[in-house]
Amino acid sequence: MDIKRRDFLKVVAGGGMLLAANANPAFAISRPPKSMPPEAVGMFYDSTICIGCKVCQHGCKENNEMPAEFTIRPPEMVDRIWDDPIDLSSKTLEIIKAYKVGTGEEKNSDVNGFAFIKRNCMHCVDPACVSACPVSALKKNPVNGVVTYDKKACIGCRYCQIACPFGIPKFEFDKPFPQIRKCQFCNHRFAEGKYSACCEFCPTGASIFGPARDLLEEARKRLTLTPGQYYDYPVQTVNSKNRLRQKVAKYENHIYGEKEVGGTQFIMLAGIPFDKLGMPPLSEKADASLSEGIQHTLYKGMIAPAAVLAGLLFAAYRSTKNHE
Amino acid sequence: MKEGFKEADSSEGTLERLVARGVSRRNFLKFCTGVAVAMGLPLGMGAKIAEAVTQAKRPPVLWLSAQECTGCTESLLRTNHPTVEKLILELISLDYHETLNAGAGHQAEAARLKSMQENKGKYILVVDGSIPVKDGGIYCKIGGKTALSLLEEMGSQAAAVIAIGSCASWGGVPSADPNPTGASPVIEIFKSKGIKTPVVSIPGCPPNGYNFLSTVLYLVTFKKLPELDDQARPKFAYGRLLHANCERRPHFDAGRFAIEFGDEGHRKGYCLYKLGCKGPETYNNCGTLLYGDAGSQAWPVGTGHPCFGCSEKGVGFHIPMHTPSKLMDITPPTIFPGIGEERGKGVTVAAAAVVAGLAGAAIGAGAATAKKLDKKEKEQSGPRSKE
Amino acid sequence: MTESKPLGGKIITMPFLVFAALAAISGVLILKRFIFGLGSVTNISDGYPWGIWIAYDVVTGTAIACGGYSMALLVYIFNRGEYHDLVKPALMASVFGYTLGGVSIFFDVGRWWQAYNLFLPWYSQVNSVMLEVAMCISLYIFILWIEFSPTFMEWLKMKGLLKIANRLMFIFIAIGVLLPTMHQSSLGTLMVIAGRKVSPLWQTGFIPLLALISAITMGYAIVIFESIVSALALDREMETPILSKLSRLMPWLIGFYLIVRFGDVIGRGQLGLAFTGDLQGNMFIIENILFILPLIFLSSARNRTRPKMLFLSAALMLLAGSVYRFDLFLVAFDPGSGWRYFPALQEIMITLGIISAEILGYMIFVKKLPVLPEIKHA
Predict the structure, then answer these.
(1) CATH topology of domain B240-332
(2) Domain extents for chain B?
(3) What is the ipTM of this complex?
(4) A85, A104, A244: residue with CB nearest B323
(5) Is B323 in contact with A72 (Cβ distance < 8 A)?
(6) Whose CB among A256, A305, B18, B268 lies 3.0–4.6 Å from B23's, allowing a Cys bridge?
């Protein structure tokens, strides 16, 4: 029987209308977003007062026992004396990158200017890596919200790398017994009353640590300051008495991480639009909510599969009985 | 300390005077060589400087002091080797200096006017202190005349002007907010009044005496000013940031800082950036030249106090002392990773060849199979389909 | 229903030796992978952590191995007994395809010595798509071997056991239809969490449906393809009549697939991206042409009776589904900021070796075990 073109087109038209009517199942199916844990800690990076000294990188390496890396380009600039990574990697959990445009002379300017950006794990409120990991190797601490990694659980499937919108988890492809590496806010120092090494060492207060709520408040406050005036920037922690009086630069009116993928515990301010600094433009929706939504809709409590199985057992029994 | 300053006497030979004071010709030559080296001139120039300064006529110098603290003069005199330095001052004829004059009052004025008349267009004018311009410049008057009018008068007839100290170079202490006297530097006043006399600025509070000395000797030897930057400062002294040659720079690079005066880091001699050191935005040679011939670490940072940019316009007396410095030499060098660097392993010739080969083989096999099937179909041309 | 019989004949043939050589080479390279790490034989990186071993060996390989699933669905669920003869060979292809897909996962995961963590309930993260896929596929491989075991029992002449097995087989058949429905769709769902890293031409909540439909269709395609190729290679008569009937399903399945595919892309307003001339746009066009062609070919009754057209359509459909998966996992995936990936030579050789091992296994089984239906000569 030839499939007549007319019939086929009828089916197409019908199906198309059906589809258009239902649109994307995405929004109907997604599970609700998550919220910041009660005692969430965080990090706040202000690119405008970062001087690119890279002491944070040094402190991070020292406190996480990571080796130096010499991958930056061009290779002839590498003298293997200074730590020169080209990007985050299995050896570099935190990095300062530089943005340059035109002659690159004026700091925090997008015209013939330059700026710095700090990259490390964003410690999302609704982490994609935690949702993706099949064996709970990546977990979000329910109290302080730090996203931690447990190599004893990890099977090295690298799904977390696929999932993370910021490309943070890095894998040791060069080792026979590899693991995932990423910033964990130096949570191994929390017990002795310390905090992230990068914040402890930053000389200008560009990187500060503290309760996530307080950091967000501080970021909002800075957006109300007048460029050119002096402000006493807190150093090391947001509630520190130690302050450095510095000139306020012109901020981009955007706190990165406030809303992106449901919010992150590492937030940023800068004088340059964030997409130029390599921070991806993301909606408020965490992709984990859609992915989990699909799974829950289909498999929650294994009810639907059980029902389908019942039907299949019945059908299979009937046909094999006849074919015996 | 007033000995050794006589009025100009062109007939007495300088070298003879030196020898009479017990300075050997050899030591004198060594000194001139040292000066040449400090200025970045070739070694041979030492002899030339020695020759030039010991030749006949000593160049006349008039020294105008405006809103100053006399620190610049004191720093010149405050040395550990009084004999030679004092004598060098005898290599010039200091015809007028408000602090060091033998005479005073009308006598001093008369000496000034006489020298100006005799040496018109040939004398060097040294200025220290800032010149007030507000309210007609009444905030500084010498001999009934405003410093402003004196500068115009003396400056326009000089061969060259050396503005010594931050005050004369860019305004210094008196120019700090709100600058009630309108304290202004020589160079600005010359510009506004259209005076064309060349100016060298030697900022510092006080400046290192050797920077001044070397400039004068250069001027006398080569009859021209040394190479200057855009703020009229000699490049040999002000061409580099303190940060570039600071002895504590490795601590900065490694992130070792003193946080408070007297803390462990401070006692270990760590970098003073966090205490507000302005080395990263101050151009000067303090860290290399040091001060007062007192040995190593005889400069602010060496003693454990952050530099406050005393010689730098817009920094000293303007930016709060403990505010972190701007870093001047930081246009990102290529040694920072860029935002989006190319990474990952792409296609190699071998891999591409294999893939192409496989694709070719697959297409070939598919085509061959199709052809075979075609043939088989033709062979079985009888009724086949049971459909 | 015809009896199955081993084909007999020499095992060691020229093709056998060629595939054996490829398998041996890959064996050495796999050893290298375990001694020196993944980076020593692959080009996967932090930007592209999944390469052809996931995109082909696991995702595409198992989809191609859906013959058993598609035939079980048709014969045992929809009770179309006339296709019975096609079941065993399809099942065997599934056994190999899935087993080797599972083995490939084992080679790919970095901490393979802890891979059993997937099955330890105290580690299970139940929201993870990967967990469901891993457990489902593992269980399914087990089920497939059970479904295939009667063939061994026949070979070993264990009549009693065979009777029990046939009586209980409906349970395993039912599970064996449920599991691929779950994991073939979820293999696609894996990429949903990558969000905007996957091009809007592919990223959609409809991925599970698209993946499932294309997998089922590929199941029928592989049955047709394998039947024709093995008939030619082993010099047997074509099973054209039954293949012809089977192929009727395909235009409807492909049609439904394309409606969902284009309805979704157009509904989200993203079709314009297909025409930008970049790699993603061009691959989208190629991918969908590969779906459309078999749809057109098999819509004609005449074509469905011609082995050549059946073969071409089946091949194109397999290619279409494969390209869809390659595109979803590799071409559509853009981690941003300058990353690039192309498989390394050693990586390709390992994949080829795995496919060769599959073919070797097929050759041995088909000659030694009662898999293929006996051809009654006219």
Answers:
(1) Cytochrome-c3 Hydrogenase; Chain A, domain 2 (4.10.480)
(2) 58-209+227-237, 240-332
(3) 0.93
(4) A244
(5) no
(6) B18
